[in-house]
Design goal:
Chain A is an alpha/beta fold and 319 residues long. Chain A has 8 helices and 16 strands. In chain A, a hairpin with a 2-residue loop joins strand 1 and strand 2. Chain A is globular. The longest helix of chain B has 13 residues. Chain B has 2 domains: 92 residues, Beta Barrel (Elongation Factor Tu (Ef-tu), domain 3), CATH 2.40.30; 154 residues, Nucleotide-binding domain of ferredoxin-NADP reductase (FNR) module (Rossmann fold), CATH 3.40.50. Chain B has a 7-stranded mixed sheet, sandwiched between helices. A 6-stranded antiparallel beta barrel of chain B has the order 1-2-5-4-3-6. The two termini of chain B are 26 Å apart.
Chain lengths: 319, 259
């Protein structure tokens, strides 16, 4: 009989029972997926981005299907921090999984105000800073473009909480690697790589954009190779845990990210097509490790070789 | 809610543009209510990527029927499926129509929007089934009505090739003009945006109560992506979770137009 592989991952001393989580905004905020997924089996549950005050979001149409993916411009519709703390956390706290709360804001002070409230919530293990939602046209939410600005936000938040901080980045950010580096220097515990990439689709009969915001964030298998490349870039240059996401639909997809160096992996838009995608990925990873007699997820993480099968030189230390 | 792999039993054309696909699922068949829908995955490939929402059209014992018109990439794939092919079906999802005890029901449907109304008509009494189509070629044949109820089905076609020439809402207004219409009638409505808009306008004018099933493009069908929100008097609500059936009075008319 083969032993079960150790799937646990540790980020700054906090242990997650397995490396599988969900991407913010693709798994609802409470019970949307309860009929299909036992949340207690997930490594972590990441909720849809909340803001300090409620936001109504963008007008319809908000989504459009594209080849092997979709564009969305929901506009961060959410009921705000107070509703989240009062109504969402008590429900989510019932499950034996780690809760990660995704937040967005317009300025450092508001980020701080939110983090101070969330810091008092024992049920929350990590706060994910969504600094890269591409779908906001008003001035309400900052799409962080400048490394200095990102550094300031991360540093301020770092000073306000001992909980884990994940910083979510998008290839839309100019100087992606500079921003990744300053996030690390400012004290983020991990990077969530990647957010969606801006795209567009036109109805040629009516000659109108297919979503009201004109552009939207592209997600799904179409962006997976791009996401993987960014995980690779980060792991090659920085010593920081990465939550890999972007088009992950199957366990094979997830293993590409883990071998490239990701600590955790998130299913995103694939949850919409297969509500059980996260658990399918988890079960597949476990099977893969068992069949290959690999004792732990940690021992395969970041073991990418060069194209000739030799060990790749990398600055990232095995952790 | 179930997510099941199902085997196509039959896939037949019932008019020049309308098709009926059937498959067996005892679990869904037992649970589905008229007005609820299923998210069908029509391919194992990633393109097209999303599932497609379809109202349940009929349930015959443990067989589910879906009414569709091949217009886009997903429905064209569906038209190509053969008995024995596999699909994935998630559901039943959303809200159903509210059965009426006192009022007489007028069904108002346009095109493939007839689907949830026919399912309601299979289970509950109704006064008339008012159906609008582009032309004779696009009509859902009366042979689809329950035995003895063909005379309740009334057509309007845009080109006048069958039934009344014009819009089905013109036929509806004749009923709504009856002096006691407000106390007498309740509407179940499903169809294209302009039809919904006009029906909602008439319902307001004649103060007749009713419910609309919105045929919104959906992402997840579970209330997570917020890609299918309806404009309601309570703000945006995901039509997959809080609908697709809404009370007419709860919807903002402007939101109906662009359906």
């Amino acid at each position: 009989m083969s032993l079960k592989p150790d799937l646990s991952v540790t980020i700054r001393g906090i242990t997650f029972k397995n490396p599988v989580t969900v991407a913010s905004g693709t798994f609802g905020n409470t019970d949307e997926f309860e009929p299909y997924v036992n949340f207690s089996r997930l490594g972590a549950f990441v909720t849809k981005t909340i803001t300090l005050r409620p936001r109504v979001g963008n007008p319809m149409p908000r989504i459009v299907e594209t080849p092997s993916g979709m564009l969305n411009a929901i506009g961060l519709e959410n009921k705000g921090l107070e509703d989240y703390v009062e109504n969402k956390i008590p429900y989510l706290a019932k499950f034996n999984t780690r809760l990660i709360t995704s937040i967005a804001s317009s300025n450092t002070q508001e980020f701080l105000d939110m983090v101070k409230v969330l810091d008092r919530q024992a049920a929350i293990s990590a706060i994910e800073l969504n600094l890269s939602c591409p779908n906001i046209r008003d001035q309400g939410i900052r799409f962080a473009q400048h490394a200095q600005e990102v550094g300031d936000i991360v540093k301020a938040v770092r000073g306000a909480t001992a909980k884990l901080i994940f910083t979510k980045l998008s290839p839309e950010m100019a100087n992606f690697m500079d921003i990744a580096e300053i996030s690390v220097k400012s004290g983020t515990d991990a990077l969530s790589v990647i957010n969606t990439i801006k795209g567009m689709s036109v109805d040629i009969h009516r000659r109108v954009p297919r979503i009201s915001n004109v552009t939207g964030g592209l997600s799904g298998p179409a962006i997976r190779p791009i996401a993987l490349r960014y995980v690779y870039e980060v792991k090659r240059n920085l010593d920081i845990p990465v939550i890999g996401m972007g088009g992950i639909s199957t366990w094979q997809d997830a293993m590409e990210f883990i071998i490239t160096g990701a600590h955790m992996v998130a299913t995103g838009t694939s949850n919409f097509v297969n509500p059980r995608a996260s658990l399918d990925v988890l079960e597949g990873i476990e099977r893969y490790l068992t069949e290959k007699k690999i004792e732990s997820i940690q021992s395969i993480r970041g073991t990418l070789k060069d194209a000739y099968g030799k060990k790749e030189k990398s600055s990232c230390s095995p952790s | 809610m179930y997510d099941v792999e199902v085997t196509v039993k039959e896939n037949k054309r019932v008019s020049e543009v309308l098709w009926i696909l059937s498959f067996r699922s005892p679990a869904i068949a037992k649970k589905a209510l008229p007005g609820q829908f299923l998210q069908l995955q029509v391919t194992q490939a990633t393109d097209p990527f999303l599932r497609r929402p379809f109202s349940v059209y009929k349930i015959k014992r443990d067989i589910i029927e879906i009414l569709y018109e091949p217009v886009g990439i997903g429905t064209r794939i569906l038209a190509g499926t053969k008995p024995g092919d596999l699909l994935k079906a998630l559901g039943p999802l959303g809200t159903g129509f509210t059965p009426q005890k006192k009022k007489k029901v007028l069904m108002v449907g346009g095109g493939v929007g007839a689907a949830p109304l026919v399912f309601m008509a299979e289970r509950y009494p109704y006064e008339k089934m008012l159906l609008g189509f582009r032309g004779k070629h696009a009509v859902l044949p009366k042979s689809e009505a329950k035995a003895g109820e063909r005379s309740k089905w009334v057509y309007a076609t845009n080109d006048g090739s069958l039934g009344k020439k014009g819009f089905i809402t013109q036929l509806l207004e004749e009923f709504l003009k009856e002096p006691d219409a407000k106390q007498k009638y309740f509407l179940y409505v499903c169809g294209p945006g302009p039809m919904l808009y006009e029906t909602a306008r008439l319902a307001g004018e004649y103060q007749v109560d009713g419910e609309i099933s919105l045929e919104e493009r959906m992402g997840c069908g579970m209330g997570a992506c917020l890609g299918c929100v309806a404009e309601t008097k309570r703000g945006y609500l995901a039509s997959c979770r809080y609908g697709p059936v809404f009370r007419i009075q709860d919807l903002m008319p402007e939101g109906l137009q662009c359906h």
